[in-house]
Design goal:
With 490 residues, this protein is mostly helical. The chain folds into two domains: 8-221 and 295-485, MFS general substrate transporter like domains (Growth Hormone, Chain: A); 231-290. It has helices at 8-38, 46-49, 52-69, 80-96, 103-131, 137-164, 178-201, 207-213, 231-250, 256-278, 285-294, 298-329, 338-363, 365-373, 375-392, 402-425, 433-440, 442-462, 469-485.
Length: 490
């Protein structure tokens, strides 16, 4: 049996919820540094405050992937329960975020928002694989990318548009401007409405139907860990201890201890899973996740390297674009000043441009180029365009010219959101597409955690008060990802 081909309406309904999810991410990415600084954070503390966001994605997505692979709630389906639950919680976080009266409350709500968005987002990645035949995966992820771009445009432009409608864009010290406040409220409503559209307009294939569509012999049995050696577990634990020792020895920022804890934590999790398997308790979530990490398909391992460097650049951009643009293009590093807030609004415009470019490129440029030079070479070319966009921040000082920089970044963003998933999806067994998509997110999150924990130390040690050099780091990491893409064979 073959899955029925979806027309444009079907592709639209499958991915429309991502439009709302990305509005939430865009509001978070473009405004949280501004919120933190408005509430009294210094620029050197921004990376630490952002740690909660990628950490929640690292923990949440594999768990949600594992659970959604095994969920079937009748008419509500397999993935849709997670769409809906995540959307409700994210809307609540967006409702209360502008009411934050201190950094702790804002950081906790950022954690809640990012966790909820990840609960919704991970099943959407797997949903394309569930619902579409393999020869429609590129089209499915392209439409999803177009909605991501469109949602990000809307989310990024909210404060800018409200400012031009006369809503106050400045606030007293320790308070959040009304433009940001109303944007978060409107974004929460839009997020919930878009996800609800996908929930109501799609009907998932039951597990028996998915097995009938599949051509491979599939199993959800836990990998056999009982025979595995323990030395890799102790190696991970030792790596965590070594990082912790270096933090103290070199006087690095204390948030780098989080990276040490994650390395040691994975070693302890593996050690526990092997111990459970040897005692006869093999079929548990921990055993599945640890075993599937080791059993990733070869193409997933190669794509993981590309994702690691690509998302390092993106996270640098999301954290540091606002202070860079405000300081170097608008002439103010003071969050209480009108010039800084104007710079913050212009960042919203810049982010809307790169997302708008991504939406158009995903449906037009990427398929056309991929048919001619292949998916891997297309991805490499797009990442090079993004590296050039980041590098241009070092020489441009007119904020209007940054719109051109965002074109290159937008082309890279379109490819990052579509090409790796299109290359990966066809190689995954459908019974485990949720867990593997969740594990693939590790290579999105780990570089973000590395940036969030280490970038503050690097900037303070070598470039204090000079955040423009973060854009140089972003350009170099994206160039490395581009070169790694040339090694992919699909």
């Amino acid at each position: 049996m073959e899955k029925p081909r979806q027309g444009f309406a079907g592709l639209w309904n499958i991915s429309f919820g991502f439009f709302g999810i990305q509005i939430g991410f865009a509001l978070q990415n473009a405004n949280m540094s501004r919120v933190f600084q408005s509430l009294g954070s210094s620029i050197d503390d921004l990376s630490a405050l952002w740690v909660a966001a990628p950490l929640t994605g690292l923990l949440v997505q594999p768990v949600i992937g594992h659970l959604s692979d095994r969920t079937w709630l009748g008419r509500l389906g397999r993935r849709r329960p997670y769409f809906l639950a995540g959307a409700i919680l994210a809307a609540v976080a967006l409702l209360f975020m502008p009411q934050s009266d201190g950094l702790l409350m804002a950081a906790l709500l950022l954690w809640m928002l990012d966790a909820s968005l990840n609960v919704s987002m991970e099943p959407f990645r797997a949903f394309v694989g569930d619902m579409l035949h393999k020869d429609q995966h590129v089209a499915g992820y392209a439409v999803q990318t177009a909605f991501i771009g469109a949602g990000a445009v809307v989310g990024s432009l909210f404060p800018y548009a409200l400012d031009h409608l006369g809503v106050s864009n400045i606030a007293a010290a320790g308070e959040i401007p009304d433009t940001v406040r109303y944007s978060f409220w409107a974004g929460g409503a839009a997020l919930f409405g878009a996800v609800l559209w996908t929930v109501l307009t799609t009907r998932e294939y039951a597990p028996d139907a998915l097995r009938a569509f599949s051509r491979e012999t599939e199993t959800q049995a836990a990998p056999d860990l009982a025979g595995r050696g323990l030395w890799p577990c102790f190696a991970w634990i030792g790596a965590g201890g070594a990082v912790a020792f270096l933090v103290d020895l070199w006087g690095m920022e204390k948030e780098v201890y989080l990276l040490a804890a994650l390395l040691a934590g994975y070693g302890l999790a593996s050690l526990t899973a092997i111990g459970l398997a040897r005692s006869g308790r093999r079929d548990n979530m921990l055993a599945h996740i640890v075993g599937d990490v080791a059993g990733m398909p070869p193409i997933m391992r190669r794509l993981a390297v590309i994702q690691f460097f690509s998302w390092s650049a993106l996270f640098i951009m999301w954290i540091h674009t606002t202070p860079v643009v405000a300081q170097y293009m608008f002439g103010s590093a003071d969050p209480a000043s009108a010039a800084y807030q104007a710079g913050g609004n212009w960042v919203g415009v810049l982010f809307s441009v790169y997302n708008g470019v991504a939406a158009v490129a995903a449906l037009t440029l990427l398929p056309w180029v991929a048919r001619r030079i292949g998916q891997a070479h297309t991805h490499a070319l797009c990442l090079m365009a993004g590296a050039a966009g980041f590098a241009s921040f070092l020489v441009l000082r007119d904020p209007q010219w940054l719109l051109l920089s965002e074109v290159g970044i937008g082309i890279a963003w379109a490819s990052i959101l579509a090409m790796p998933y299109a290359m990966l999806a066809s190689s995954l067994p459908s019974a485990k597409i949720g867990i593997y998509m969740g594990l693939f997110n590790i290579f999105v999150v780990m570089p973000q955690l590395l940036v969030a924990t280490a970038m503050g130390s690097i900037m303070k040690a070598f470039f204090p008060g000079d955040p423009i050099w973060t854009m140089a780091f972003a350009a170099v990491t994206l160039l490395v990802a581009s070169l790694a893409s040339l090694r992919i064979r699909v």
